[in-house]
Amino acid sequence: MKLSSAFALLLASLVQVQGQDIVLNAAHNSTAITGTWASGYGKVVTGSGFATPANASFTYPDVTGVSYSFSEDMYYEIARYRFNSNASQPNCITGVMSWCHGQYTLESNGTIVLTPLGDGYQQVQDPCAAESNFVENFNYTELITKWTIDQDVTRGYRLRLWDYAGSPLPPQYLLSTTPNMLPKTSLREVAIDPDSLVTQRKREINIARRGTGEHARRELGFREPDAESWVKTALNKIFGSSSSDRD
Ligand SMILES: *[C@@H]1O[C@H](CO)[C@@H](O)[C@H](O)[C@H]1NC(C)=O
Ligand SMILES: *[C@@H]1O[C@H](CO)[C@@H](O)[C@H](O)[C@H]1NC(C)=O
Ligand SMILES: *[C@@H]1O[C@H](CO)[C@@H](O)[C@H](O)[C@H]1NC(C)=O
Ligand SMILES: *[C@@H]1O[C@H](CO)[C@@H](O)[C@H](O)[C@H]1NC(C)=O
Ligand SMILES: *[C@@H]1O[C@H](CO)[C@@H](O)[C@H](O)[C@H]1NC(C)=O
Q1: Which atom of ligand 1 approaches the CA of 109 most closely?
Q2: Digit-coded pLDDT (tens) for 188-230
Q3: How confident is residue 119, by pLDDT bands cut at 50, 70 and 90?
Q4: CB within 8 A of 120, min separation 6: which ones?
Q5: Ligand 5: which of 48, 50, 57 to mutate, most ligand atoms within 8 Å of CB?
Q6: Looking at ligand 1, which atom is closest to the CA of residue 15?
Q7: Residue of 136, 133, 91 whose CA lies nearest to 228
Q8: 194 lines ligand 4 (CB under 6 A)
Q9: Ranges of each domain in the chain
Q10: What distance in Å separates the CA atoms of residue 183 and residue 46, rounded to the nearest whole number?
Q11: CA of 56 to the centre of ligand 5 (A)
Q12: What was the pLDDT predicted at 22?
C-alpha cells in the first residue's frame, strides 16, 4: 500500500515534468517515427495478417505483442494481443486482441494524440467467465505521454512509448520504414453506438452476467469461429515450446 502510493506520487511528479513544453529533439529523431514498429520478434504486426475489420475477426498470432504504425500523412494503426492475469484467480488468464486505426498528432509538449476513426474492435476471451468469448467496439482516443527513439545494439531502432498513466509499453523495433497498414478509411459497419452498448451491457451484467457477450456478438454480426479457446491454444504454444520470445 505505502509502496504503491509512493509510486503514484513519483508518477505524478514525472507527469508534471513531462507537462513542461519540450521540443522534439534528438531523443525523438534518431530516425523518423513513420513506419511499422513491433515488440518482441514481430509476431504481432499491423496491416493484413492480424485483423480483418470487415467481419470483426482476428488471425491469432502465436505470441503476445503490440505493433504501432505511423504514416507520413498522419495516420496510425495499432495491433495488440495481450494476456491479463488475475492474482486472485491465477488460472484465469484473459486474452485480449484489439485493433484500431485513425489519425495522430505529434504535440510540441512531447505527447502523441491518437484519434480513432471509429471502426476499432476487440475480442476478449475469459475461459473462467460465464460469457467466455465476445467482440466489442473499441474506440478510444489515446494519449502517449512520452516517446523516444533510440538505437539498440542488436535490434536497431527502438521506439518507446509511455501510456496515459505514464507506464511504458513494451519496446518496439522498426520492422519497415514504409508503414504496413490497412486502408486508412472506415473498414467496418459500426452498427451501434459503443456508449449505448456499454450501458446496455452494464445493465445486463447487473441482471445476469450471461448474455452480455451474446448481445455484443449479435450486434456486431460476429460468428464464433470454433469452440476451441484461442487463449488456451496460445498458452499451450507459448508454454509448451519456448517462452523466450514472449514480451
Ligand atoms: C500535451 O498536449 C496535448 C494536446 O494539446 C494535450 O492533450 C495533453 O494533455 C498535453 N499533455 C501534457 C502532459 O501537458
Ligand atoms: C524531429 O521530428 C519532428 C517530427 O517529424 C520534426 O517536426 C522536428 O523538426 C524534428 N526535430 C529535429 C531536431 O530534427
Ligand atoms: C479478479 O477475479 C475476481 C474474482 O472473480 C474479480 O472479482 C475481480 O474483478 C478480478 N480482477 C480483475 C482485475 O479482473
Ligand atoms: C470514435 O471516437 C472519435 C474520437 O473521440 C469520435 O470522433 C468518433 O465519433 C467515434 N466514432 C464512433 C463510431 O463512436
Ligand atoms: C473473415 O473474413 C476473412 C477474409 O475473408 C476470412 O478468412 C475469415 O474466415 C472470416 N472470419 C470469420 C470469423 O467470419
Answers
A1: 1
A2: 988 654 444 444 443 333 322 333 333 333 334 333 333 345 5
A3: very high
A4: 98, 99, 100, 101, 102, 137, 138, 139, 140
A5: 57
A6: 13
A7: 133
A8: yes
A9: 20-240
A10: 11
A11: 8
A12: 53
Banded pLDDT at 234 (limits 50, 70, 90):
low
Answer yes or no: is the C-beta of 137 below 6 A from any ligand 4 atom.
no
Q: What tens digit of pLDDT does each residue of 129-172 get?
A: 877 888 999 999 999 999 999 999 999 999 999 999 999 999 99
For ligand 4, pick from 104, 114, 139 the residue to mutate: most ligand atoms within 8 Å of CB.
Answer: 139
Residue 115 Cα to ligand 4 middle (Å) = 8
DSSP string for 83-115:
EEEETTEEEEEEEEEEEEEEEEEE-TTS-EEEE
The Å distance, Cα 88 to ligand 3 centre, comes to 7
| Burial of 103 per CB tally in 10 Å (0-12, 13-18, 19+) | middle
Lowest mean per-residue pLDDT among 49-53, 100-104, 152-156, 204-208: 204-208
Nearest CA to 161 out of 33, 41, 62 is that of 33
Residue 14 has pLDDT above 50, yes or no: no
- Indicate the DSSP class of residue 54: G
b/e string for 152-167 if b means 16 or more Cβ within 10 A?
Answer: eeeeebbbbbbeeeee
What pLDDT score was predicted for residue 164?
95
88 lines ligand 3 (CB under 6 A): yes
- Take atom 6 of ligand 4 and give the residue whose Cα is closest: 118
Predicted confidence (pLDDT) at residue 8 exceeds the cutoff of 80: no
Q: What is the identity of the amino acid at 171? A: P
